[in-house]
Amino acid sequence: xIKMKNRILINIGVLATAAAVFFCVSGCSSVPSQRVNDxxxxxxxxxxxxxxxxxxxxxxxxxxxxxxIRDQSFIYQDSSIRVxxxxxxxxxxxxxxxxxxxxxxPLYNWKMINVVEFGNVNLNFIKADESCIITIEPLKxxxxxxxxxxxxxxxxxxxxxxASRKERx
Length: 169
Prior knowledge:
Blueprint: H1 2-28, E1 33-36, E2 42-45, E3 66-68, E4 74-77, E5 82-90, H2 94-104, E6 111-118, E7 120-127, E8 130-138, E9 143-151, E10 165-168
Antiparallel strand pairs: 1-2, 3-5, 4-5, 4-10, 5-9, 6-7, 7-8, 8-9
């Protein structure tokens, strides 16, 4: 009887320890970590955002954690041109979103032209004959992300229009 009681207590202890480790590991992955910089100050380090699984433009990454605002998004595309305004809403910190685009856009062959920060953050990129303007709008409870793709000035060529595609989300 005593052996059985001890075995039950040991099993409960093992399960409690395993649960504590599980919750600590799973909970800690979403919490920003801290490190000490060269001057001895504690600095908060945010986990970088990943790329979303579904992209509306295959060469414009979207950070994970954002959902498209369908009634405010539009794409027009044919064999010679693509134009679009994609608006997203999400909870990631706006500084994380800025870091995401600065790191990811060059991987898709976009060249950053400039960054304008005053309340909202505007990131301007170019690629071949297109431009991409990304606006990050931090709000109290969420972040709004706008992605505009358009031809660069003077790069619109007359296409046949036979393979055009217009989508309203």
